[in-house]
Amino acid sequence: MTKRNYATVNPCVMCQPMGSALAFKGIENTMVLYHGSQGCSTYMRLHLAHHFREPVDIASSSLSEKGAVYGGRENLKKGLRNVINRYNPKVIGVATTCLAETIGDDVPAIIREFKEEEGIGDDPEKDIIIVPVSTPSYGESHVSGYIKALDAVVRKFAESQGGERDVRIHNGKFNLIPTESLSPADVRELKEILEATAGDYIFLPDISETFDAPLRDNLPKIASGGTPLSEIADMPDSRASLGLGIVSKNLAVAYLEESHEVPGYSTPIPIGLSNTDSFFTELVSIIGCPIPEKYQKERGRLLDAMVDVHKYLYGVKAAVYGDPDTVFSLATFMLELGMNPVLVATGSKSRDFGKRIKQIFEEIRPELEPVVLDGIDFDSLNDAVSECSPEILIGNSNGKYIAKARDIPLVRVGLPIHDRVGAQRILTVGYRGALELLDRITNTILETTDTFTAPVVEPAAHAGQGEKDECMEGAK
Ligand code: SF4
Prior knowledge:
By secondary structure, this protein is an alpha/beta fold.
């Protein structure tokens, strides 16, 4: 769409190692170490801390010019030793950054060497589990960093129990493995739904507390909460896995299915009516549970609200951008609301994004012809917005400059949200999340167009008492 032909300007994605930190931080007693230069860790700590408004510790092997020339082996070992001494974690996620990958450090080999030197084994009960993941940012984005980290964690814990087993010991649990863009409030909502339906479930990663912790007198070095390690070790014995998101492949779900015969399913992120319906349908078919009355009522309230706001939202031209699976679910909801998503875009390079978006338009509003873009930066998004002329933007806070320049409103959804507070409490999933999002979109449009406020007619200053009394009678 952009007419320019130069390097990325203001990427619409974040660095790949940041996605790995989002995943690792949802695991009990886990610390993250970036193998690379210090700036990567500083930038990503700040980025996450500004979004979640929580302290975010990420260690770094602090590669300098010397490490870049001679290799980062000693820096990485020193970094691991420091992390163990200062944080006493049970798991260390080691994610590489661009520099470590460019110089070609063999991180798994360095970790093997380190464990031998320090006498660290592979028993999750007794030893520190170190999980390497390759995440150079020039390769992909935070979306793939998250997916790769979860895959690496699940594999590591499965392998530490002897890898593929001939006989599975079914534990009757249900694995839920989401995508990177959920907020702690979303995770809490999904856990509540699972408690009411699946009962025994494993949610990986669980950021509901680690990225939204209550204030405490003594700040723990590693935030409390996260998926318990014993649960992760149990995942290969679960009855089924459900991955949230259908655009990006959920590697952990695929691994559990291929290597441990745990049936794997996927469903869109449950944003909006039909996507939440699909989520419940999957739960019902996998677990065989009824849908609790509470959620049936919530669904009814959502339908009622959709009817209420239809007159305000019908035909409103919108541009939606962000992570592929979030954008897919948001676009679906906007179509359900009668809106016209003229521009649907993601910063991630994705083979399936365009296909999935076109499918959903054909199913719900085949007459619409959106501009669908993947791998965009904010420069090309700006060009596309100028051509499509949306009346509202829906996406992360980095789109605010485009919104301001064109004097159109922005509804902040996704990651990051840096210019407002409360990102960790934004609920978009489930029927309740859809209701909240619907209110936010509608009220934003109403505020912009001011269509629902009838002009206030002040009574004339010279009106006599009799006239005032008549007015009051009318008001009664
Ligand atoms: S692009 Fe690479 S070097 Fe730059 S901050 Fe991201 S990971 Fe670090």
